[in-house]
Design brief:
Length: 97
């Protein structure tokens, strides 16, 4: 997935922190090549995607995001992030092995 940066503001930063996930962790997830797919249930207003994978520290994350085209390029705008539940981790590890 090619992108030029992240679109952060107080709104999405706070929503991600609510679940204990830092902006650094989210950005490291995207640097490590997560599995990305559409989030069909929540794409009424804008196209949303789900990303799952491991951070640089090995933590399993689930991130909902959208893409924003800006004058300086394509940005990922995280909407929500949380650590994966045990069954999600097991399914993810089974898929990638």
């Amino acid at each position: 997935m090619q992108f030029d940066g992240f679109d952060w503001d107080a709104g999405n930063r706070d929503k991600c922190r609510k679940h204990g996930v830092s902006t650094r962790e989210i950005e490291s997830l995207f640097a490590s090549g997560p599995r990305v797919g559409p989030d069909v249930r929540h794409s009424d207003v804008e196209q949303r995607y789900r990303a799952v994978g491991r951070t640089a520290d090995g933590r399993h994350l689930f991130v909902v995001f959208t893409l924003r085209q800006r004058s300086d390029g394509l940005s990922i705008r995280p909407i929500s992030a949380r650590y994966m539940h045990r069954n999600e981790v097991e399914a993810y590890e089974k898929e990638v092995s």
